[in-house]
Specification:
This protein is an alpha+beta fold. The protein has one domain: Nucleotidyltransferase, domain 5. The chain has 4 helices and 4 strands; from the N terminus they run H-E-E-E-H-H-E-H. Strands 3-2-1-4 form a 4-stranded mixed beta sheet. A hairpin with a 5-residue loop joins strand 2 and strand 3. Helix 3 runs parallel beside helix 4. The protein is globular, with a radius of gyration of 14 Å. The N and C termini lie far apart (31 Å). The relative contact order is 0.20. The mean pLDDT is 94.
Length: 116
Amino acid sequence: MSKKISRIRRSKKTRSRIRIQKVDRLMIHKTPKHIYAYLVDKDDRVITSVSSQSKDIRDKVKYTGNCETAAEVGKLFSIKAQELGIKKIAFDRSGFKYHGRVLALANAAREAGMEF
């Protein structure tokens, strides 16, 4: 089984469990150069999103494929979600390992006030 197929299989399992809980979720996606964070509601609609391609992030960092950028994305995501009145969410890592940039984004969002 290839690496991508394994990741997709893991993500399907996680999403099915989160859907049963009926809570909003922080869904992430990452590529070698960028990281994306989406706030998805109970009905699978994207409420807001932040990425390393956002103008606010690009102005602060030099390179977008590292943990520093992921932490900035996490902070900005948390601010946007709290403006919408959302503090408690589920963390959907989309099958990616909880390590490196995924971990940095999650920790930064928690430090900025999100609960998951």
